[in-house]
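Page 42, continued from yesterday. The earlier attempt failed because a stray header line got pasted into the input along with the sequence. Redoing it now with the clean sequence only.
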Amino acid sequence: MNFLLSGYSSANIWTNLMLRILAFTLLISATSPAWAIEGMGNPWETVDNAVCAGLKIQDFSGAVGAAVSISISERVPETKTLPAYCRVVGVIAPTNPVEIRVPVSNRNGRLLMAGCGGLCGAIQMERTDDALVRKYAVAHTDMGHAETDMAFANDPAALEDFAHRSTHVGTLLLKAVVKAYYNRAQDYAYFRGCSTGGRQGLTAALLYPDDYDGIVAGAPAAGAAVPNIAWALKANTRADGSNILGAQAIRTLHDGVSKACDLNDGVADGIVGDPPSCAFKPETLACSKDNAKDCLTLEQIDAASKIYTGVPGFASQGFAKGGELGWLRGLVRGDQPAGFEGVARNYLRRFADLPNAPKTITDLDFAKTPVRLAPVDALPSFGADGKRIAGFEKAGGKLLLYHSWSDDSLTPATAIDVYTAHEKSFGGADKLDPFFKLFVIPGMRHCRGGEGPDAVDFLSAIEQWVEKGRAPEALIATKLKKSVPLPHEERFPVPPEQVIFSRPVFPYPASAQYTGQGDAKAASSWVKK
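This time it went through. Structure tokens are written below.
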């Protein structure tokens, strides 16, 4: 039973002593045929309540390296969807709210810090529910601010928290609370996040190699992410602000890509399984006398080519072939601004101190204006030799990086370029893959959704790698009849009746190929290509 308390400050020594006496008394009473304290109920539960409540008066500042104020520490009873847990809510100075949930029984020895999305600005414990069900101790933070726009970036401390510090100190508090509650440290510490969460994970591997044993980082919002968004929006915008590629032209383009490359993996299923091998060229859809309907103008062909290419000299690619339907949300203006407009406006602000700074997306000239990254977009330096992440390897960490070929927000280059840069600096995949692997999922959009399989049990994969030494040679991705909405995470294993199809995803740059035998909807019918 979790009744031992330790680590209190001297100011709270008498409270600590009283809690210990209460816990001891209740344990003795539990051996009696009837409860010794009438009306108190189950003493084991009462002990848990006392231990959980006691966390509120414990001083965690020394363990975190900053002042910590705990406002809530309460036991939350079991529900139909979640186990009973001790809920701890606190603030780490200067302004970093953190919520922690610790299972009251059957702990698995693991903890998980969950990543954020977008500009964060809110605690979303839904991102941790699936792990809590698996008896992880879990936590989430708003990354140091409550705003959902870039106003917080004017405060250097808030910007530092968003860039890296909030995740780190929140993890230190999670570890300290776990140790205080169970009277022992965790066995394994994990991080999982996508988009901004992906950047958080990569940043932790580079700056804080001892924070986690395993990191799952998806679609990192860093590096080429924002410049490629601005590049694509400019490529699709005329001087008067109108679309070059409208909704119909994008559908025509997508149909052309599908016709040319859908079958490359052996199955016609609306998914381009390996976009780099797709030889489709937009000019094959050029309008002519014989084809004046389902075609593209020269202006539209040029726009499409630029969107596929990405920022020259900065990113390895732009948006991948096969993911064009995702452009409808981000690049097409209608009654509402295009989805990428807000991101592009924030990007333009970063040039404000330059002479003749671009005021609109059409003013932006990448040939004359240097690509700029704000601290919230840039990963820490990889080091002079490109091997800063070697500290994470030395600490025994494992990094599972993933992205999606059809990402409709952040181009696959944001993950691919990080991986290939490290592959080069480490001297080849054989040197890197023992602790750092990249998987690119076909047909999935940004972190979730799309025509492809988008449900992957990343937690089990990273557990097996860290705890058993079983590196993931393939991930099984499934398409479900009904997916949980973000920010929730899917709970595994999923009921077989909910699976539409499954497919293996192999480490980059390999892809999956249908064998031609067996059910094409079953992952077992696919092999590594």
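Notes: The longest helix spans residues 156-182.
Reminder to self: strip header lines before submitting.
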